[in-house]
Design goal:
The complex is a heterodimer of chains A (245) and B (123). Chain A has 245 residues and is an alpha/beta fold. Chain A contains nine helices and seven strands; from the N terminus they run βαβαβαβαβαβααβαα. Chain B is elongated, with a radius of gyration of 29 Å. The chains are: A alpha/beta (245), B mainly alpha (123). Chains A and B meet through helix 2, strand 3 and helix 3 of A and helix 4 and strand 1 of B.
């Protein structure tokens, strides 16, 4: 863990910043320090939602000039994201909101490229896709196991049928929204089905979206925490039987 | 399947669905009392079950009671699931409100001359 000094950062919490990075986190003490360090160096406004972690995630996050929210009980990534969106929409001047993972899978340098389509005014939502980059010939793509690749592709197929959205990567937490678009999205799936729910709401609200290629790093660490095939079945169940009346 | 069976089934389904959606608890309690009374009646007068069963086209009175029980159980199960989802929703709203109303902020960094060179993380 690199030692952090206050002098490293020139940023203070600027409530009138137009770009906010929303990071749901659960037990990510190993990776979140570095991510927040890099984000603060680039003067991004950051919101971390600690989903009742049992490790040092919260205390690490609190060392940085960012806003930290804490859930009193563990609700799930979807719930943490919705809490973050709620806060950003009601308590900041954010015009562009980016969701970002806390496990080190996403690349901070690509935040600018995911915001650009929003700034141009043509798009409401930008979705990161790991499948837009040219695929190598080997079975492992960027270190992703073949089984995960297949599961994701099936997820894409299922989403295309249910939402009629031509999306190449349906479960990528790297997304960007305009304020106006985000107001129309309400995540009710607390656990991992929120990805598909977001896409369904994009389709239902007829939001203008585009995809940009992003790098998703698969390390040993993130692979352990990643979604298993079983989890994908759980998501399917949640989406079919989990709807409120 | 005869006309009687179809209409009775539809009526029961409509009744069950509307009761499960109804937020009026008294309606549910009334329904449970009714079901218990009907069950009691069939226990004391088992022949009546056979009579009704023949009317609706089911073989035996016991079969009728069994089918009614299945319907009742299914209704009770879905009603409980709906209530549980509502409760989960409420819990989520509470936790969310608590999180948003109590953001954990860092105090602003001290002025230049008051700053320490290396601040130890307070884990």
């Amino acid at each position: 863990m690199t030692r952090i000094t206050y002098e490293s950062y020139e940023q203070q919490i600027t409530q009138n910043s137009t770009v906010w990075i929303v990071i749901p986190a659960y037990n990510e003490e190993a990776t979140i320090g570095q991510i927040l360090h890099d984000l603060c160096q680039k003067n991004y406004s950051v919101l971390v939602i600690d989903d009742c972690s049992t490790d040092k995630t919260k205390s690490i996050a609190m060392q940085f000039p960012i806003v930290v929210l804490k859930h009193a009980i563990n609700l799930g990534q979807g719930a943490a994201l919705e809490t973050g969106f709620n806060y950003v929409l009601n308590y900041t001047q954010a015009k562009y909101i980016v969701s970002f993972d806390s496990d080190g899978q996403h690349n901070i340098d690509e935040i600018q490229s995911i915001i650009n389509p929003l700034v141009s005014g043509t798009y409401d939502v930008v979705l990161g896709s790991r499948f837009l980059k040219p695929i190598s010939n080997t079975i492992k793509i960027n270190g992703m196991p073949a089984i995960k690749f297949l599961t994701l592709k099936i997820g894409v197929f299922f989403t295309r049928i249910t939402t009629r959205l031509k999306v190449t990567d349906t479960h990528n937490g790297f997304r960007a929204f305009t304020r106006v678009a985000l107001r129309k999205i309400h995540i009710t799936q607390n656990r991992m089905a929120h990805g598909s729910e977001i896409l369904m709401q994009i389709a239902r609200n007829k939001l203008v979206y585009c995809e940009v290629p992003v790098d998703v790093k698969y390390t040993e660490y993130s692979r352990k925490k990643g979604q298993s095939v079983l989890n994908s079945l759980n998501i399917l169940w949640d989406l079919i039987f989990g709807r409120e009346e | 399947m005869n006309f009687f069976q179809v209409t009775i089934t539809l009526l029961i389904i409509i009744l069950l669905v509307s009761i499960s959606r109804s937020r009026v608890i008294i309606l549910e309690r009334f329904f449970y009392i009714l079901v218990s009374l009907v069950g009691l009646y069939f226990i004391f007068f088992p022949e009546s079950a056979s009579v009704i069963a023949k009317l609706v086209g089911i073989g035996r009175g016991a079969d009728l009671v069994f089918y009614l029980f299945i319907l009742f159980t299914w209704f009770w199960f879905s009603s409980s699931s709906i209530k549980m989802r509502r409760t989960e929703r409420k819990i989520t709203d509470i936790v969310r409100a608590m999180a948003i109303e109590n953001p954990l902020r860092l105090s602003k960094p001290a002025k230049d001359d008051e700053k320490k060179t290396n601040v130890q993380p307070n884990c």
